Amino acid sequence: MLLNLKTKIAMKKILFFFIMLSSITSMAQTLKCITHENKPPIIFSKKTNDSLKQTNAINMPYTVKIYVTIFADNGGSNKATTNEHVLRQIQNMANQYQSQNICFLLVGIRQINNTDLNDHNVSDSTENTELTPYMVNGFLNIFVHKYLPGYHGYAYAIPNTYLSVTGNIIESTDVTGILGHEMGHCLGLYHTFSSWVEKNGTVHKENVARSGDCKNCEIEGDVLCDTPADDNGGVDASCIYTGTAKDACNTSYSPLTNNLMAYGDYRCITTLTNGQGERMRTFLATNSALNAFLVHDALYTPVFGNTTISSGTGHTLAREAVYISEGSANLTVNGTARQYYQAKKVSVKSGTKFSPASGGLVSVKSNPYCN
């Protein structure tokens, strides 16, 4: 039976209403997001990790370009959240990732009016493809929806180039780790309690042991040994583990209840381990899709003599500095060109001329998210 768009939207909102009525009262306990998709985890060899250590040291922190789309209903009503709330949560995420030498460059926030995507059913794979036309190329895309029935955040795959979160998560002042949690999945991290099942029924779970015959932390769970094994057995409001289960070797679990990739009470999750940081940096260095989101330390423009840009959209982005018209080459931006320049420091030298016409734009901004 084919449903028109208006009927489809109405049914989705009814479904969301009943899901909310039946959900557990704690926001933290209702969050679900993408996991292994029941397949073996991606494991990097020791040779790969070792070969990247020097590269990582030279190029850190890795700076990831991000772009935020906030959905609203057709006509602009029922906007998922505000720019101010987004900026606050981006800062929270930047703080959480800083110790792992990963920072972010927020290039833009825009509003898209689309009632269907503002109430986005991530369980429907056909709906997920509807996000594709709204991807901003060259950036890791963050989509904010008013509703994600059954979810507060979703990363779609591990790793991935885009994620979704709900507006109420962005607006929360006590739950500050969900955006960072979904970003972790995009950059290659699994849940600390991850497991998977073979077709023959064999269950793969991480044991607590970090030595001896029971040790399997390098190949099971989140494949990281500096995150203790986790059974997702429960965490109370004081961030204390409440589970009583034991692993296959009869050892009690003692997980990190404040780890960003755990579940439990989501007011607790704020930290990442060094192993998680190394894994994310390895994905950024080796995955071609993610590597495209990294920016250089410094950029000079123009490069090849005096240059005039009169049309098109361009981004000149760097971690530390962008130098405009440095030396003998000068830059002119006019006409309908839309040009964006952003880094911790943007230096505009004499000889630069910005004179965009109607429809054109020049944006020069500092980036506060890389210390």
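^ that was protein a. below is b, sequence first then the tokens
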Amino acid sequence: MFSFFKKKTPPPAAPAAPAPPEAPPAGGQPSPPPAAAPAPVPAPEPAAPAVPAAAQPPADTPADAPAPSPVTAEPARRSWMARLSAGLRKTGSGITTVFVGTRIDEALYEELEDALLMADTGVKATTQLLQTLRRKVKEHKAADPAAVKALLADALTELLQPLEKPLVIGAHQPTVIMVAGVNGAGKTTSIGKLTRHLADHGQSVLLAAADTFRAAAREQLGVWATRNTVDIISQQGGDPAAVSFDAVSAGRARGKDVVLVDTAGRLPTQLHLMQELTKIRRVITKAYASAPHEVLLVIDGNTGQNALAQVKAFDEALQLTGLIVTKLDGTAKGGVLAAIAQERPVPVYFIGVGEQVQDLQTFKAREFAEALLG
């Protein structure tokens, strides 16, 4: 499932006569949206454009514009949930075995503490989870290990809940999304998958190949652009900030819904390279005063506590608005999301468990907790 918030254009004034019964659009011409808040739209139905093509110049949303309305896609998630559970098995197995053939005593809590720390949940998150679990066990008078395990899932869901937030598309024309991450985290591939999801939901996308340092990065993004039939702005060996400026300017001129800026991989310890990222952000703002509207960091779920360090460093430099967590399949360190929720709760927009486009899905706290604990 892929879901995001999509802003609708303001509805026209209601006619004096009663409105006729609602009917589907005819001949491809969009019909005026109803005055009431729209209901969720199923995945097969593409979203309408945020602003009619070339109808008005790019500008920020007026103060009196309606709030973004939800557009969600709800295809069957069973197969993906099975892959998520399988991917998190290495992380969860050490935790779930604590509840096998045991009594609810202090020894169980000590074993559970060790298992959570081994899963890279972190000291602070582990402490909070155990405190919450003890309270819930006392409140529910739980004496069965299976019941305690279910209460742990509840506690983990509560901890992760602040990370569950939809991506907002359509509040600006275009919505400019800057994407950062260290080399090898799956940044460019995640951009390609996100582009596909946006295009499938009726969004016109422009890609900016601002990763001008890594060999073949421009070509890799170009392949995704061709595959998804979207425009791309690139310059061989060009300045990344200049490419970003040109792309944002082109996105505004062409009336695009989304501009995705792929930046070069950076290690947070490389100060001069991190300064290059802040320069890109400043230049994007020069091209569009309110941009970037989203600053995403792609992190590798296999890196554990190092992923938390990356979130802190990139957040301080770029003011992150969201995360994409990749490679959760097969990792023993998936508990790092709990550490992020406790110490630097930047929303997790998407999580990835494979190489296919459909393997990048929206993050939901309850689903993740249940998949982790089996």
